[in-house]
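Batch job 17 of 40 flagged for manual review because the log was empty.
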Amino acid sequence: MTPAVIQLAAEAAERRSAEVTDWGARIAWVIGLLVLIAFVYWLMRQGWKWRGALQNDLPELPAAPDGLPAHRLALTGRYHGSTTAGQWLDRIVAHGLGVRSRVELTLTDAGLDVVRPGATDFFVPAAQLRGARLDKGIAGKVLTEGGLLVVTWAHGDKLIDSGFRSDRAAEHAAWVEAINLMNQSITTEGAER
């Protein structure tokens, strides 16, 4: 070997980084980071439980009555949550309304039947429906303009917005029209009495 090659090999050996020998410090940092992440998740869970406790005054969700009339519309898709009407970031978590899930939505003359596999099902009587609209977001979910079907309904003394997204988004417009017509006819019938 020539002296130049030996010198280049020696310089390359000097430039190589030193091997990690302080495993104790690295393990301590990793454990500390894992504890911090666990603590943050625990705080998030406590906040969720606290929010549920604040919404304790919300009555139990009604179940669908037996023998529902034939459905007007049906869709499958996703339930993205419920909020206080008009306040798209004020998520409602009481009675499982904050749990995202798949959904089978059925509109009948009796009301709106919301079947959620893995979460609490509920029923919105036709008299409690206040309207529907296309929107772009609800607490924790933002989509393109008109990508979310938002149904407004009354429960107890509170107005609630519930967000749904159909597997076929083109269905949303028909749902808005049907719910708003249903609400208009119920309001008109109530005014005639």
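Reviewer: the log was empty due to a logging misconfiguration, but the result itself is present. The CA atoms of residues 134 and 173 lie 8 Å apart. Unflagging and moving on to job 18.
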